[in-house]
Fold these 2 entries.
Entry 1:
Amino acid sequence: NMSITASYLVLAVVVARLLLKKAPKWINCLLWALVAIRLVCPFSFESALSLIPSSQTISVNTESVGRPFTIQTGVPVVDTGINDFMGDRYYEGVTVPTNTFANFTTVLSVIWLVGLIAILIYGLISYLRLRKRVGASLLVKERIYYCDNIATPFILGIFKPKIYVPSGVNERDLEFILEHEKSHLKRKDYLIKPLSFLLLSVYWFNPAIWLWYILLCRDIESACDEKAIKFYDDEYKKLYSTALLNCSTQKRIIMACPVAFGE
């Protein structure tokens, strides 16, 4: 139920995101935070103005042995079709194996758990591999390291985040790169992204949550850029954009580590 109601909210935020193209990008991040709260909290506040058709889409029916649950999406056509279909197959008088539905949900639970563990292992391995690549880095300033084994700058770390910069980056671009990465540090994005990845791991079976995670990461980057150039003129903004573009086109690289910022 939490997953389904969060899906409704994701769709609502996607629409709001299109309508708020000219608004500050941090507003988008705030809207995505509401989705995260919905994914964490087991309860919701209902009202006549709610965008969610039903907070309990799947309601468990404990009074009937034959019909284990009903669907209440808030869309009558959908509800009637599904519940009529279930009613023809689950009702008193029909002989079905004992605990058929319980066994089915047990299988689904095992599949969910395997997927959760697999994604968490992937995240851990990608983090350890990236840590190994930046093992031979040179400390230049506080939290800033030069590394020969990377092609694009990024932040790595949760409790003590560090900025890693390719050794070959030119001094002109370095100023703008550091401005971008320091904006991530000020906004505490190095905490937000791992926590978001953890929620994605729990709800990996829901395509809407993947959409939420992808768009959240994009909006985090946009909000970071917005903060970095907020008080500068157009000429600075052009140089800033060019510097980041130079970093992104040096080599074709995929930053798949969920706790690193290299997009």
Entry 2:
Amino acid sequence: MRVTESELSDKMSEAAFAFRGYNVTNLGRTPELLEHPAYGPIVEKHLKEASEIYTAATLQRIDLVKRVRLREETCLETYSEAISLITAAEAAQLEILNEFFGIEFTQASRALGYSLGEISALIAAEVYEAEALLTPILKLAGDCVELAQNIQMGIVFSRGPELDLPAIEKLCVETTARNQGTVCISSFIAPNTVLILGQGGAIDLFREAMKKRFNRQVHFKKNPDKWPPIHTAIVRQRNVPDRASVMLETVPGGMKAPTIPIISCITGTESYNDYNSRAILYDWVDHPQKLWSVIERVLATDIHTLIHVGPDPNIIPATLGRLSMNIESQLNARSISGFSLRAVSSIVQSRPWLAKYLSKNASLLRTPLIENVILEDWLLENAPSA
């Protein structure tokens, strides 16, 4: 169902902005926003500013406006350009929303971001200026690209019970100790899904050992793309966390609380205060993303609408979509269990205040009730005429 301008404005006090991170494709509908006669100048401004930040940090010139106009997609080799493109697109979408629809970032209840998205959330919440926070990331992106050349991603998932996460973490440590490459969890997606990154043949060693150690309901799927090893211990091989930390010590900003609370994928909850962002961001570099903890936190709050910011948002809407389908299938089950779930779901829906007093598992029943708005689609659907 289409959300109108007035409806979205009315929903803001119970809404959260969700920022996407890096993916194998990063253009989304940014070319359409750039070509739009009303939106175009704002998008062009942010792309130019991001190009200038990139040039100052890397001493290499890029033209993101030209890239977007030509619809040139990014790749691993242009990872640092992708970082600049994504953050520029996210900033542009927020300014368009404010300029043309009077909806400000600070009207929302909270913000959250997956991976690079958390960086954009900190910038939007005025904890740092874009140049201050992006410069260290851009300076170190080349090391991540070089490390990524022999890194593969594996998706470990279960079609039945929850994954035994301590057992998976133990197997990562055991596999790494065989000295054929480091393998680590990079993201906790859901109780039944984690993302694994491994160097060289380590990911295959992990997969073979997993087959023998876990039951048949636990599966492994290898992703064909190459990924920068951010959020894993692999970046320590180039001293990236320590180098990033030293750079962050003296960048401007970071000495005030976010303008709205940010649910961090580093900690799994609203952790930022007026001085600790540098310490939290140190863990952003080499610690896995706690996406599932963030999803649980969202569902335990008064958030009813998620506004997904960035070009072609993917992992957060997809995770919520899978969870919603699983819950709806249980709610529709013709069984005592299904009846009980429907009863609890009715309570949660009609008395939202009561949800926070129920267990966190009961709050998951709110998932099908969460309204997801893909901001770039919404902006184009509601765009003013030329």
